[in-house]
Amino acid sequence: MSPSLEKLIRDTRLALGSKGKPLSQTRFGELVGVSQVGVSRWESGEDAPTEKNLLKLIEIEPAFAKFLPSRAINLPVYTMVSAGALSAAETVLDAHLDELRRIPVAGLRNGDYFILQVEGDSMNKIAPDTSFIVVDRADRELVPGKDYIFMHDGRATFKRYRARPMRLEPYSHNPEHDPIELDGLEGVSVVGRVVKVFLDL
């Protein structure tokens, strides 16, 4: 179980002390830009840090990031990505960001996000044709059963990763779609993990 905000503030202050003495509430308050009374109220649960306070606390202890309120991020919307066979990927790699429409999306953790529109029905159990997906370029570690954008030889596809055997699987109501076997297929890279699906923006 993760510590409460009050406990994390108190534990962080105590950990910043030296020679066996905890850092005073006054000195800790100076570090984050509040008074001793403000720190005391945080630790007792009578009051809570503002978003601005939390950003200062995160500089001292990254664990405070989980207490930030969910904020909408304006994400660029690319044209499309194939949910069928590998297809041309200019929209993933070469789009000019300053020319793209942007849509606010909330509830995302730290990452490098963008939006793609799905073309095709090979992933329609989770993302029907013409739906939109949010992709995190910062999350490229393959986890079996999770969904990613893959690249190969300048072409891209939206698929589910399977490890045994290694392949990119469709997740569709249409039985005609075949997996893409990775055994012997060199040069496949991960653009990012798909973290959200929207039917309409």
Task: Describe, in plain words, how this protein is organized in 3D.
With 201 residues, the chain is an alpha+beta fold. The protein has helices at 5-15, 25-32, 36-44, 51-60, 90-93; strands at residues 73-76, 81-82, 87-88, 102-105, 113-119, 132-136, 147-152, 155-163, 166-169, 180-181, 189-198. The strands form 2 sheets. Strands 2, 3, 5, 6, 7, 8, 9, 10 and 11 form a 9-stranded mixed sheet that branches. Strands 1-4 form a two-stranded antiparallel sheet. Strand 8 and strand 9 form a beta hairpin. Helix 1 (5-15) packs across helix 3 (36-44) and helix 2 (25-32) crosses helix 3. The protein is elongated and about 65 Å long. The chain starts with a helix and ends with a strand.
Distance between the termini: 36 Å
Low-confidence stretches: none
How many strand elements?
11
The succession of helices and strands, N to C, reads HHHHEEEHEEEEEEEE
Number of helices: 5
Binned strand content = 25-35%
The helix content, as a percent range, equals: 10-25%
- Quaternary class: single chain
Report the mean per-residue pLDDT as an integer. Answer: 84
Based on CA inertia axes, which overall geometry fits? elongated
Q: Sketch the major β-sheet.
A: 9 strands, mixed
Radius of gyration: 23 Å
- Counting helices, strands and paired strands, the structural category is alpha+beta
